[in-house]
Structure formats: structure tokens, C-alpha cells
Amino acid sequence: NGYLSADERAEAVQLSLALKGLAAAALAGNAAGTLNVAALEAAAMDALRQRGWGPDYMTLRRQHDLSPITGPCAEPLVVLGAAKLGKTRLIDNLEV
Asked: How far apart are CA 19 and CA 78, in angstroms?
């Protein structure tokens, strides 16, 4: 992204890593039947905040209609995230 400084470009990978961490935690919770979506989303946002980001959202949704889930789910999911790094807003997603 041309709007990011060199240091910000090096940091930008953290958004993808946060999404991957949220997806892994969701898969583990889903498999165990103990999926707490709100807690996982809050933890992902807190992890970014601790690194100086301004997260708008980190969320786990159903792939087919992007509706929220509240507990274990057998459907394909997607993790969505948007956060500001400096003055630049970055967005990303990951199918689960």
C-alpha cells in the first residue's frame, strides 16, 4: 500500500496474522463446542490495539450471507477485519 511508510508496511502483516489467529481460535472452539465469538473478536481487536492499531472490526460471520454467529456452527465461515494503521485504513478477510 503506497499510503504506508516503510515501518507501517512491515507492521501491516499483523492484520492478516490477527485474522489467522481469530480463525484458528474459532476452529478450535467450534470443534470443542465452546465457540465464544464475542470473546474471540474482542481478543483479536485488543491484540491490534496493543500494537498501536485502531481496529474498526474483527468479526466472524457465515460465508453465504455474512450473518453473525453466536456459537458453534457447521457452515463455512469468514473472518473479516478493518483497522487503521497510522492514517491508512486496511481491510482483509479470510475464509474459514
From this structure: 10
